Amino acid sequence: MDRSKLEEILKSLKARGVEHDPGLPPCPLCGAPALRGYDFRAPHRIEHNCECAYREPERYMAEVGRVWRRWHWSRVYRESLPPRYREYLEKPWEGRQKEVVEVLRSWQEEGGVVYLFGPPGTGKTHLAVRAAWGKAQEGRRALFLSEWEFYERARLEAVGPEAPRLLDQVDVLVLDDLGKARLTPFAAEVLFGLVEAAHRKSLDLLLTSNYPPEETARRLGENAEALLSRVERAVEVRGPDRRRKEVAVR
């Protein structure tokens, strides 16, 4: 495109009466607001009230792609959370049990398999949600599943070869409340397979449970020792039942 044509396009853009969408990210180069009417479901489905896309198209699209990954996977992760857990994304965790926070910060940087356990109401899910949120905001493909949801997805994969495989869709997984569901031979097999995949660095896995890892592992029978050897860090979350405190305040 010649220079005169480019200038004509830029002038027409400036002359538009445009509306901005504060729900979409601004231009990554100059900070100009996004225009209303776009959904950003893909990197090219956004436009900003600036000239960057025309003056520096390659740089602009590369940066928009990075922004899209962070924006998209943050939304996917947030939507995977039960509504009652979404408030955890805004709650601070720095003042919580120091040892646990240090382990989770290390997991955010290094990945692997971490197992949080302790009595109900001590904040295991809150900590896990926040730790994986940090990875989602970096553009990692993060997801939150309850134990039941995980087994249900595994059953769908087993009966329908065309069903998308979980391990092909995520880089980061929070598996919450491990130990509540009845552990059938099939469930034991897919649970061990998940931990094995995380141990091989196919994904970063964060497990929460009311039960110590030894107790959970015993339910796997002959694979108990193998499971324990693949859990790289297990840490107990201690403290009072915060849910009872919240009920008392209400």
From TrEMBL:
<dbReference type="InterPro" id="IPR027417">
    <property type="entry name" value="P-loop_NTPase"/>
</dbReference>
<dbReference type="InterPro" id="IPR003593">
    <property type="entry name" value="AAA+_ATPase"/>
</dbReference>
<dbReference type="GO" id="GO:0006260">
    <property type="term" value="P:DNA replication"/>
</dbReference>
<protein>
    <submittedName>
        <fullName>ATP-binding protein</fullName>
    </submittedName>
</protein>
<keyword id="KW-0067">ATP-binding</keyword>
<dbReference type="Pfam" id="PF01695">
    <property type="entry name" value="IstB_IS21"/>
</dbReference>
<dbReference type="InterPro" id="IPR002611">
    <property type="entry name" value="IstB_ATP-bd"/>
</dbReference>
<feature type="domain" description="AAA+ ATPase">
    <location>
        <begin position="110"/>
        <end position="241"/>
    </location>
</feature>
<dbReference type="GO" id="GO:0005524">
    <property type="term" value="F:ATP binding"/>
</dbReference>
<keyword id="KW-0547">Nucleotide-binding</keyword>
